[in-house]
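FAQ: What does the model actually see?

It sees only this:
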Amino acid sequence: VKEGNNLQAREAMAFADTLAGMSLSEAGAALPHPLGESIGSIYKDIPHGRTMAVIYPEFMRFSAINAVEKFAKVGHLLNPRLATVPDQIASVKMCNEFDNFLKKINMWYSLQDLGIDLQRLEGLPAMLAQFTVHFTPRPANEEDIKTILKKANKR
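And it is asked to produce this:
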């Protein structure tokens, strides 16, 4: 991100992206991916990465209590000082660190920022709630998904 002309770094990112795609195809995707893909099917001009940047912060806040150890590890990577606090605290603070990361790389968006009308997404929560049980740290029901979308609507 910092060095867009660094071909070695870009190659490493492309390889990491390929590995991520392979793992998604094998293990399935948590809620933000199908939600982002569904938004992209309605708003075809919005890249998948931007929908991820909108949905992931709220999804992580929703999920952090069910994946404390994993979220704490990510928190340690984003801010090594979080390694000095209990995992329960680090997992919650990781969400803010991720927000800061998105801001740093100019990917901090809301649904409104992208011109997405929340009313056009009304059918998605019911459709996706049935799939989140298997791939999400904290299963989300229809109301949970509505709440995630509402929180992502405006920042």
